[in-house]
């Protein structure tokens, strides 16, 4: 099952590069047809998608490497580096767009065949929407930060494109050429905001962020319902490393309980957690009853 997921994730990451290249080509044609700096900004964001897709493929490939003598917990955090690189690229693209927008603001350009250019760009927007939605869904299913970040950026690209098309429509209708660089500047600011969110999310993962509160509540409920025979569970800690989830806690049992019986309780808890969460890794520290703290997860 793990091998199947790895193959599918890598295949999707590779396909994402192809989609990004196709969208970039379409948007470049739209820019060439119109000479619009706003459409240029949209095409620049697609260049980021191409590079980010290549980095995501590398990260996904590395993340599925098994643990070795130097990386005892595997390589799952590699995907966070992909998202950080994507965030940096987004910032660079935004600065390039702002520079181009400033030049166009100083010397407004008359748009050539704007209607045709907008129609071409709309095709790329539809492709981005479909693929971005797909990446986000698969990123969530496979617990892949790289795919999810790529999908979120594509969806941000969709909103950017819609804004650009709306602005150009108004510019074409009113004849106000100044709206073109103004839309490009707004696109750049939106890209900067998205880049900040991508980097922040990735850094949280690199800092061993705890799992989602709803998932942690589910973990507590499963432990509580399957720890019969134990006295209490305390010091529950969780963290995420890419698609891998780590859970550790202390299990307090009666002092006279045999090691074999305590081990059975641990096995029972591990089984239900592994059934509920894909890629979970569990560490349980068994303690005698004098170590009870009367806090933590109640045992039913």
UniProtKB/TrEMBL annotation:
<feature type="transmembrane region" description="Helical">
    <location>
        <begin position="114"/>
        <end position="136"/>
    </location>
</feature>
<feature type="domain" description="Cation efflux protein transmembrane">
    <location>
        <begin position="15"/>
        <end position="207"/>
    </location>
</feature>
<feature type="domain" description="Cation efflux protein cytoplasmic">
    <location>
        <begin position="212"/>
        <end position="289"/>
    </location>
</feature>
<dbReference type="GO" id="GO:0015341">
    <property type="term" value="F:zinc efflux antiporter activity"/>
</dbReference>
<dbReference type="InterPro" id="IPR027469">
    <property type="entry name" value="Cation_efflux_TMD_sf"/>
</dbReference>
<keyword id="KW-0812">Transmembrane</keyword>
<feature type="transmembrane region" description="Helical">
    <location>
        <begin position="156"/>
        <end position="179"/>
    </location>
</feature>
<keyword id="KW-0472">Membrane</keyword>
<dbReference type="GO" id="GO:0015086">
    <property type="term" value="F:cadmium ion transmembrane transporter activity"/>
</dbReference>
<keyword id="KW-1133">Transmembrane helix</keyword>
<dbReference type="InterPro" id="IPR036837">
    <property type="entry name" value="Cation_efflux_CTD_sf"/>
</dbReference>
<dbReference type="InterPro" id="IPR058533">
    <property type="entry name" value="Cation_efflux_TM"/>
</dbReference>
<feature type="transmembrane region" description="Helical">
    <location>
        <begin position="12"/>
        <end position="31"/>
    </location>
</feature>
<dbReference type="Pfam" id="PF16916">
    <property type="entry name" value="ZT_dimer"/>
</dbReference>
<dbReference type="GO" id="GO:0015093">
    <property type="term" value="F:ferrous iron transmembrane transporter activity"/>
</dbReference>
<feature type="transmembrane region" description="Helical">
    <location>
        <begin position="80"/>
        <end position="102"/>
    </location>
</feature>
<dbReference type="InterPro" id="IPR027470">
    <property type="entry name" value="Cation_efflux_CTD"/>
</dbReference>
<feature type="transmembrane region" description="Helical">
    <location>
        <begin position="37"/>
        <end position="60"/>
    </location>
</feature>
<dbReference type="InterPro" id="IPR002524">
    <property type="entry name" value="Cation_efflux"/>
</dbReference>
<comment type="similarity">
    <text>Belongs to the cation diffusion facilitator (CDF) transporter (TC 2.A.4) family.</text>
</comment>
<dbReference type="GO" id="GO:0006882">
    <property type="term" value="P:intracellular zinc ion homeostasis"/>
</dbReference>
<protein>
    <recommendedName>
        <fullName>Protein p34</fullName>
    </recommendedName>
</protein>
<keyword id="KW-1003">Cell membrane</keyword>
<dbReference type="GO" id="GO:0005886">
    <property type="term" value="C:plasma membrane"/>
</dbReference>
<dbReference type="InterPro" id="IPR050291">
    <property type="entry name" value="CDF_Transporter"/>
</dbReference>
<dbReference type="Pfam" id="PF01545">
    <property type="entry name" value="Cation_efflux"/>
</dbReference>
<keyword id="KW-0813">Transport</keyword>
């Amino acid at each position: 099952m793990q091998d199947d997921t790895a193959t599918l994730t890598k295949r999707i990451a590779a396909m994402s590069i192809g989609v990004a290249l196709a969208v970039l080509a379409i948007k470049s044609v739209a820019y060439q047809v119109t000479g619009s700096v706003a459409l240029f900004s949209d095409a620049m964001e697609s260049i980021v998608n191409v590079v980010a897709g290549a980095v995501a493929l590398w990260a996904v490939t590395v993340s599925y490497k098994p643990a070795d003598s130097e990386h005892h917990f595997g390589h799952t955090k590699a995907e966070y580096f992909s998202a950080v690189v994507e965030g940096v690229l987004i910032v660079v693209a935004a600065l390039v767009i702002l520079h181009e927008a400033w030049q166009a603001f100083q010397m407004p350009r008359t748009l050539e065949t704007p209607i045709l250019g907008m129609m071409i760009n709309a095709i790329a927007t539809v492709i981005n929407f479909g693929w971005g939605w797909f990446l986000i869904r698969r990123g969530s299913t496979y617990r892949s930060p790289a795919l999810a970040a790529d999908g979120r950026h594509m969806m941000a690209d969709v909103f950017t494109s819609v804004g650009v098309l709306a602005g150009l429509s108004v510019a074409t209708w009113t004849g106000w050429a100044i709206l073109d660089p103004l839309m490009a500047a707004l696109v750049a600011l939106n890209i900067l905001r998205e880049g900040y969110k991508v980097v922040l999310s990735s850094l949280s993962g690199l800092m061993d962020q705890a799992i989602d509160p709803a998932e942690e509540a589910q973990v507590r409920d499963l432990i509580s319902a399957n720890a019969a025979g134990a006295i209490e569970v305390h010091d529950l800690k969780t963290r995420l490393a890419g698609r891998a989830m780590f859970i550790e806690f202390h299990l307090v049992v009666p002092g006279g309980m045999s090691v074999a019986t305590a081990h059975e309780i641990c096995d029972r808890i591990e089984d239900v957690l592994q059934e509920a969460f894909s890629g979970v890794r569990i560490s349980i520290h068994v303690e005698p009853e004098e170590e009870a703290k009367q806090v933590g997860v109640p045992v039913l």
